[in-house]
Specification:
single chain; Arc Repressor Mutant, subunit A; about 75% helix; 9 helices; mainly alpha; about 170 residues
């Protein structure tokens, strides 16, 4: 069990942070995910890869958490994320702009974007994890990229990230 947590904890936590936009919430949900994984391990189909199954549980827990929590003001989230020191350098500023653009996407676009770009999951695994056809996942990923690119363009950041998102 310990090996399972060590192997997948960073992936699960990374997904949770990006979907929930709050470190403490992500830590709580990550713990819940592994509790559910341990309780449900007997039901896992061992002929299928383990990571997409765990990430499906993580996505579902994030959705439940978002539905249950009271939405905090965006300014508080922004200040929380940017409180780490003085004037940011360009790469840190770019990372913050990308996180802000990601946070403004629809929840399903965010999840697909994070699972593909941050977790490195193949489209088929993402589709299985969220219960949607691969074509839908491709469409959502494309739309997420376009929306983020438009937001970054409005903020004057597009020249720095244009080819990374295309």
């Amino acid at each position: 069990m310990r090996t399972l947590v060590e192997r997948y904890q960073s992936d699960v936590f990374g997904l949770c942070v990006r979907v929930l936009h709050h470190r403490q919430d992500a830590e709580d949900v990550t713990q819940e995910v592994f509790l559910r994984v341990f309780r449900s391990l007997k039901r896992w189909d061992s002929s299928r890869p383990l990571k997409p199954w765990i990430m499906t549980i993580a996505v579902n827990r994030c959705r439940t958490w978002l539905a249950q929590r009271v939405k905090r003001p965006e300014l508080v989230d922004y200040l929380h994320e940017t409180a780490a020191g003085p004037k940011a350098d360009d790469s840190k500023e770019l990372a913050q702009e990308i996180r802000a653009a990601l946070a403004q996407l629809r929840e399903d676009y965010q999840i697909v974007f994070v699972m593909f770009h941050e977790q490195g999951l193949p489209l088929e695994d993402i589709a299985r994890a969220i219960g949607k056809p691969v074509g839908t996942v491709k469409t959502w990923l494309h739309r997420a990229r376009l929306e983020m690119l438009q937001r970054l363009k409005r903020r004057g950041m597009v020249s720095e990230v244009e080819h990374e998102l295309s």
